[in-house]
Amino acid sequence: MSDLATHIIDAHGGLEQWRKFKTLKAHLIQGGALWMLKGKAGVLDDTWVTIDLTREHASHAPFGDASRKSSFTPGKVALLSDAGSVLEELDQPRASFAGHTLETPWSDLQLAYFAGCAMWTYLTMPFLLASPGVETEELEAVVENGETLRRLRVRFPADIATHSTTQTLYVDESGLIKRHDYDVEIAGNTPGAHFISDYTEVGGIKIPTKRRIFPRGEDGKAMPEPLVVSIDLDQITLA
């Protein structure tokens, strides 16, 4: 890891503390234009997300109604009953997004893949930077809203399912992540600028509770509208 990657991880609580836990669960409220655009308005507006900290797995419950929950891994996504019975499943789900643009509607299974992939990435960051095969490089700092932010370029290996192979983190002087840029490959490589704030501390780990995602222009700057996705977390537990 680069020195900046180590600094970021330490600022969020450190690897030693993070590795004491195996799961993270939180109450999740979501909004923004994306869900209606994809034909899935209301499905995941108010739900609970649980992620595995030892492997890439995430679940949303309820998923649309109280009788369904999702199960996401890079190689398979499924919708399950409360009792755990498989209602629908899809192997190699990322391949199903071939040819998609930002406007292409999603099936329920595709929504489960996107939501699982996104929330697992968001909630394991920055500790994900220490995973095998992840490469990091510090870029030139930038000034945004009068604040100097250091930048870290991140390259992910093929075995980690995430928005895009190359992503960029913006961090403040203390090492906390303030912005996270990526291109959503499964939505036609749509560029996003993801703003992160309102940190809380759970089990010695600093976790942001507010996320706002906007389009990113060709100049690298965030556009003021539309609000693509809003994410608010509370009742966060690590176990």
Overview of the structural elements:
By secondary structure, the chain is mainly beta. It has a single domain (3-238), classed as Clam (outer membrane lipoprotein receptor (LolB), chain A), CATH 2.50.20. Helix content is 14%, strand content 44%. It has helices at residues 3-11, 15-18, 34-37, 108-124, and strands at residues 23-31, 46-52, 58-61, 68-73, 76-81, 86-91, 135-144, 147-155, 166-171, 177-184, 190-202, 205-215, 229-238. It has a ten-stranded antiparallel β-sheet, with helices on one face. β5 and β6 form a beta hairpin. It is globular, with a radius of gyration of 17 Å. The two termini are 26 Å apart. The model has no long low-confidence stretch (mean pLDDT 97).
